[in-house]
């Protein structure tokens, strides 16, 4: 794998341009599975982590890049007093109206994609051994599946997911179940995985699994380097 040229700018790149230059790892899992815990641990071990859900929250935070277009398309009632997106109100709308979801995605997805590229280029140039793209709906997106070299799925029983999200997001069981229904099934997600991290709440076991995963990914990268 070649080092990313320092004289190229991220706005000249698509993520596919990184293929063959650095190992691209996809990290996904259903809501409440614990993707963030796994990506944080991988980051601590030196991986370059890009969290698209975090980027989504950043662009819809007060003064976020997506806020002016969201206000124009949906009206000021979808923007809170502090200038951030009213996420519960928008969630209710997009579940009820598929066209509203498409409109929102048309605003947010290009911004998320560009920031993802910016971070990927920056981390690659900074010497990250490999890149991890934490993407909630990775399996649902054929473009993401075709992009990544190695797909890691964080998994736990559905009831554990429901309890975690109800507690974390203060949502009702019905609201969480609607979110789960909108995602691909656990079975389909696991069928796509190159590696599975089980996360039922034992932090020591989770740490051990992530360390083993890191070593495996580093070996894959080493093998690719030696064959290039």
Please provide a written account of the structure.
- This protein is of the alpha/beta class.
- The chain has a single domain (10-227), classed as 3-Layer(aba) Sandwich (Rossmann fold).
- It has ten helices and five strands; from the N terminus they run βαβααααβαβαααβα.
- It has helices at 35-44, 52-59, 67-74, 87-96, 98-125, 142-147, 158-169, 173-182, 186-191, 203-227, and strands spanning 23-28, 48-51, 130-134, 150-155, 195-198.
- A five-stranded parallel sheet has the order 2-3-1-4-5, sandwiched between helices.
- The radius of gyration is 18 Å and the shape is globular.
- The termini are close together.
- The model has no long low-confidence stretch (mean pLDDT 90).
Summarize the model shown.
With 228 residues, this protein is α/β, with parallel strands linked by helices. It is 54% helix and 11% strand. α2 (52-59) packs across α5 and α4 (87-96) crosses α5.
Please state roughly what percent of the residues sit in beta strands, choosing from under 5%, 5-15%, 15-25%, 25-35%, 35-45% or over 45%: 5-15%
**Rg measurement, Å:** 18 Å
Largest sheet: 5 strands, parallel
How many distinct helices? 10
Structural class determined from secondary elements:
alpha/beta
- Major β-sheet strand ordering: 2-3-1-4-5
Instruction: Please identify which CATH superfamily we are dealing with.
Output: P-loop containing nucleotide triphosphate hydrolases
Question: What best-fitting shape do the alpha-carbon axes yield?
Answer: globular
Can you name the CATH architecture? Answer: 3-Layer(aba) Sandwich
Say what the CATH topology is: Rossmann fold
Helicity level: 40-55%
Number of domains: 1
Series of H and E elements: EHEHHHHEHEHHHEH
Tell me how many strands there are.
Answer: 5
Mean pLDDT: 90
Terminal CA distance: 6 Å
Based on the structure, what is the oligomeric state of the protein chains? single chain
């Amino acid at each position: 794998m070649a080092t990313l040229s320092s004289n190229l700018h991220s706005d000249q790149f698509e993520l596919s341009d990184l293929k063959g230059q650095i190992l691209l790892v996809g990290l996904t899992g259903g809501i409440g599975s614990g993707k963030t815990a796994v990506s944080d641990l991988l980051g601590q071990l030196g991986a370059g982590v890009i969290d698209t859900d975090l980027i989504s929250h950043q662009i819809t935070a007060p003064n976020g890049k997506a806020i002016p277009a969201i206000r124009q398309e949906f009206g000021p009632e979808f923007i809170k007093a502090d200038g951030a997106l009213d996420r519960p109100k928008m969630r209710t709308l997009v579940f009820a109206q598929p066209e509203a979801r498409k409109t929102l995605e048309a605003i947010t997805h290009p911004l998320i994609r560009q920031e993802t590229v910016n971070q990927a280029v920056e981390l690659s140039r900074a010497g990250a051994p490999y890149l991890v793209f934490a993407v909630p709906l990775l399996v649902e997106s054929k473009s993401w599946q075709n992009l990544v070299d190695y797909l890691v799925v964080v998994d736990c029983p559905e009831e554990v997911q429901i309890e975690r999200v109800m507690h974390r997001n203060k949502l009702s069981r019905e609201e969480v179940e609607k979110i789960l229904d909108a995602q691909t099934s656990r079975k389909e997600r696991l069928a796509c995985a190159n590696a599975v991290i089980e996360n039922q709440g034992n932090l020591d076991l989770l740490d051990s699994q992530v360390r083993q995963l890191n070593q495996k990914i580093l070996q894959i990268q080493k093998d690719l380097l030696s064959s290039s």
